[in-house]
């Protein structure tokens, strides 16, 4: 198996965890199977960079060194807000030469500024998706997933999602067992699906201003197995179904059905991760009614059936 060079691009104001998280994954793979990855870090002039948290990182080389990267990793951080034209120019010239182009968090802003994301479906940290879409209309921005893979380009959301993406890349390169060994060593799950939402329904939705609607939100979260149709929820809020649906969407930013769908999915996920309950029992408790209905919801939202999700994300029993 040919050794792959993984090159991390460094700059002042980089987010340290955007670098160290994926780096530890690739380094873990090299520990498991020596000779698989050659990991390098480079800044424009080869000088140390100061991260956004104050940590100083010393690169291995400057960006003027001969380019031989298989995987080019561009992290994010405050330094992406006003990028150096020299850095953007280097990415524009060398990015197309990498077999795999990866961004972590707001590193996607650098890639977009270099014209490397045009026509691609991508993601970034939820707080910066609007800016990415506004400043780069040729880029298809999906604000929901923790990472997105579009051909040779892979982009991840905020900070720790870079670890999830790196594990997925290692699994592609070296197989599930190696990736699983790294995940266990780092004490993280293998692996959150890329299309898992960046945050929960309760965080994704705004909190309604009016108390009857806030009470409905609380009720949904506490009773996912109940009848949560618009008529039942409207009655709880003492509103007509049409008025309730319109007011709920206006005040929370999503329809009642979408909110219920997210809450039920999260409830089922927690039960699969934290309890030994069977799929049939969980489907009833989460409001799906049948295992088949829950399976369809999981495959649609997470790309994995409930049994596969549990196998991936429940920690292995202690030996």
UniProtKB/TrEMBL annotation:
Entry keyword set: Transcription, Transcription regulation
Annotated Pfam families: DJ-1_PfpI, HTH_18
Molecular functions per Gene Ontology: DNA-binding transcription factor activity; sequence-specific DNA binding
Source superkingdom: Bacteria
PROSITE patterns in UniProt: HTH_ARAC_FAMILY_2
Coiled-coil residues: none
Protein name per the record: Transcriptional regulator
Lineage, uppermost ranks: Bacteria, Bacillati, Actinomycetota, Actinomycetes, Kitasatosporales
